[in-house]
Structure formats: C-alpha cells, structure tokens
Amino acid sequence: MLGEQSLQNPTGEKSTEREKYVTLSVDDGHPTDHRTVDLLQRYGLKATFYIPGANAERPVMEPSEIREIDRLFEVGSHTLNHLRLTWITPERAWREICDGKKASEDMLGHEVVSFCYPGGKFNRRAARQVAEAGFLAARTCMYFLNDYPKNPFCWGVSAYANTYPAYVQIRHCLLETNFAGAYNYLTKFKARTAWAAQFMCALQQVSREGGMAHLYFHSWEIDQNGEWDELEAVFKAIAQHSLTPVTNGYLYRRWYEKRGLVAGSSICETASRSAATPAGKFTAGDDLASQKVGGNDGL
Q1: CATH (domain of 96)
Q2: How many CB atoms lie within 10 A of CB 159?
Q3: Does the residue 8 lie in any domain?
Q4: What are the Cα distances from residue 178, in Å, to 4, 132, 237?
Q5: What DSSP element (H or E) covers 237?
Q6: Does the residue 188 lie in any domain?
Q7: Cα separation of 192 and 190, whole Å?
C-alpha cells in the first residue's frame, strides 16, 4: 500500500546529505497518459499521476485504466471534479478534497497520500484543508525550485512542460510570491524559455548540488503541442545523470523522515502546523496564490 511504503532509499542504500532525485508529475488523467506510460517504462522512470474523479474540461481515463497505472507508478488525488479550490466556497472545497480522496482510495483499494491543486490554485485555507484531509503533501505550480520546501503543502517543481516568454515566467513567480523561483530562474536557469532547456538546467544543478529535478506536465498538452519527441529526448537525457528516479509520494515521505517523523500523529500535527503557515505571503483574503496568471493550468 502507498501509505505503508518503506522510506528507505529506493536503491537499497542509506541516504546521504546530498540526495539526488528525479521525479515526474503527470496531471489530469487524460487518455493520452497511456503514451506517457509507454515512455516512462521504456526509460525506467517513475512518476505520480494526479487524476481527478471527473473533469468537465476534458476526458478522464476509465477506473480500470487508472488501476493499471497505479500498479506501475503512483496515483495521487486531483480533487473530485478538478475545480480550482480558491474559486469555490470553503465548504465545497472541503468536499472536493475529501470526496476526491475517498473516490481514489475506493477505486484503487489503498491509501492515497499525494495531492495536487487543480490549476495550481491554492491559498492558506486550501493548504490547511488538504493537510486536515490526511494527505502528506500537495504539489503546486510554483516553478524553478529544486529542493525540499519548508512547507510540504507548498511543494514546488523545477519546470513545467510548456514554453512561455521570460516575462511571463517572472510574472507567474511574483504573483505566487515565489521569490526563490524568480531568483533561480534568472540565475540558475539563465532565463531560458524552452521548457526542455529549463529541465536540463535542473538536471545539471541537482547532479552537482543535490536535491530533486521535478518536471510536471499534461500528456494531453504534450500531444496538443506535438512535443512527444521533445519529451522522449528529456527522458533519455535523465539517464545521462546519476539521479534516482522516485515518485512524488516517496519524496513527501522523505520530507517527514528527514525531520524524524515517520508515522502516526506526529505527521498529522506537523502537517497541520505547516499548512497553517505556507511559504510566501498571502494578501487580501489569503488569495494571492490563487490568481490566474495565464491561459492554462500552469501559467
């Protein structure tokens, strides 16, 4: 079961201070995820698929297909109906989070510990609700971050597989008060605009300094943009770096393990405290991070 998975290093060796991981997030559960699965298996990579119970925007795979993906990788929750949590009432947001968790667990037959905010939209209240629902951590759309966050419910990524001008990338970081990401984008990522080049920077940095290279994408968007060759080239490049492939859930557990919290109420208490004070500042109704910056889930 995912909730009982060992926290030991997946290579069987003891972890060091300079852990070097690579992880992938695949959002929305679109049928084109099957093509992503084929590529992941071809290159021996691991990933977490964040799948909602339903999605009015586009199709979601059938339960039997999702169970097959869960057998090979990790499936995380993406709410019940893929609704932006900051755009609905707190009561409805709570139902979306809790009912989405229960629906996933009923379908898969085991605990689901990983969560992803639909559209990357979250605030203090949403983070607290996700923690109280029993998740270990929640992935955001905060970019250009290659290390463990202070708060597991504000978990960032290295890059998002879609290309935008540099000023849009900076604006997105600033609107989410992701100042570390903005700084990293200009310095460590050299203001690169092509998503594949951004992730190559992350691979190189993590190879040198440790941390985690984390790419997030939508299979349907890769298909729509005709970028399967680019995605495969990135997967192939990962093999050239000495990074350990892991799921998002593995890293979430490592966050707690590194703090001496491996099971029981201590996790829940720490999660609730962390979610009450997410990284970054929230203004006017704690809703700065919920502002829509662009035309899709990422930007």
Answers
A1: 3.20.20.370
A2: 30
A3: no
A4: 32, 24, 28
A5: helix 228-238
A6: yes
A7: 5
Q: Does residue 243 contact residue 9 with C-beta atoms inside 8 Å?
A: no
Q: What contacts 38, CB < 8 A, 6 or more positions away?
A: none
- Look at residue 160 and give its three-state secondary structure: strand
Q: Is residue 10 part of a domain?
A: no
- Whether pTM > 0.85 for this model: the answer is yes
pLDDT in tens, 79-128: 999 999 999 999 999 999 999 999 999 999 999 999 999 999 999 999 99
What b/e string do you get for 204-215 counting C-beta neighbours within 10 Å, with b at 16 or more?
Answer: ebbbeebbbbbb
Q: Which two tokens stand for residue 67?
A: 């169970």
Query: What is the SS3 assignment for 158?
Result: coil
- Torsion angle of the four alpha carbons 114, 257, 5, 118, in this order, in degrees rounded to the nearest 10: 0
What's the length of the chain? Answer: 299
pLDDT tens per residue, range 11-41: 444 444 689 999 999 999 999 999 999 999 9
DSSP assignment, residue 155? B
Percent of the chain with pLDDT over 90: 81
Q: How confident is the model at residue 261 (pLDDT cuts 50, 70, 90)?
A: confident
Number of domains in the chain: 1
Lookup result for tokens 């990524």: 157
Q: Among candidates 133, 115, 120, which has minimal Cα distance to 79?
A: 115
Q: What are phi and psi of 25, to 5 degrees?
A: -115, 130
Residue 31 near residue 222, CB atoms below 8 Å? no
User: Which pLDDT value is given to residue 6?
Assistant: 40
Is residue 238 situated within a structural domain?
A: yes
Q: What residues make up the domain containing 235?
A: 21-283
